[in-house]
Amino acid sequence: MKHKRFVHGGNVYDPAENGQAWLDFSANINPLGLPDSVKAAIVAHVGDLVHYPDPEARALRAALAAAYETPADTFVLGNGAAELFYLFFEVERPKRVLLPVPSFSEYERAALASGADVEYFLLRERNGFAIDCEALLDEVRQTKADAVVLGNPNNPTGTLLPREELVRLSERLTALGCSLVVDESFLDFRTDEAEHTIRREAGRLPHCLLVRSLTKFFAMPGLRLGFGVCMPQLAAKLDAHKDVWNVNLLAQAAGVAALGDHDYQERSRAFVAETAPKFAEAVASLPNVATVLPPSANFLMLRLKEAGEAEHLIESLRARGILIRDCANFAGLSEGWLRLAVRRSEENEKLLAAWRDVAK
What we know:
Helices cover 37% and strands 16% of the residues. By secondary structure, it is an alpha/beta fold. Strands 2-8-7-6-5-3-4 form a seven-stranded mixed sheet, with helices on both faces. The longest helix is centred in the C-terminal third of the chain and has 23 residues, at 262-284.
């Protein structure tokens, strides 16, 4: 049985009590839904399923190189971004991994699967859960960690580091004999992505792996598609340890179509940039909400005034067909912390109305 620490949101397969489809605020997926271009690409390539996928994924690599302005030989492709964490730990075999927490639980699960010891670097609410790089480096020295994994933006807190600081952190960690894995899975949602991404630097930084997901931004998590960027030597090493057909034919075609759909990308960023702050402000006005962290992507984290109300709120919304993410199983968080995806305005209003009704 899966440990409760590694349970995620987005489990829509249990039937809803109201008999309708779930309104899912527990998974952070693009609220605009699957692009029409991706649907068309999948339909167009269904007949090609009689063939194996291209083991080199040449069309997808070319599309990634063009979209992210990064050399094709620095990419390693994954069956979702999560696969790349497992692949990295399995290949590099760090002995002790330091995780700034709270963070995405698959970092820890992947590290433990490779036999590594895991240490926590606690991020504090009083500091807005921001990462203090100097304190992190001190902790690396004290724990003798040989790998650090962090999200940028971090899930579930939404905190961000600028590109220059991440590059400097990677270089200083390398001097300490420590690798850095940076998860940028939500960075595509930001209009200022270029100010935070290390996609252009990751291909020259030794002992650094950048991981990104295509399934969250393009709303296709069921298809599974992600990629990493690193020095060509490390990319080749990682490629040699994975299934040659780990990215299926339809996922490759969908990725090419999605990366070429610039209208969808622009509409998505504009929508999240406009909607997320308004949604956060509305959530902050709810009577039982104490704190809402500023959203940096398509989700936000909040704390209830009374931690003990969390279970009642979650179950009451669930009875109304609405899923939200309980953050109590994130390392570094306690009961009373919740995470909400940003969805379309009318869906956000349904959640707010149901929440107010429960809060009465």
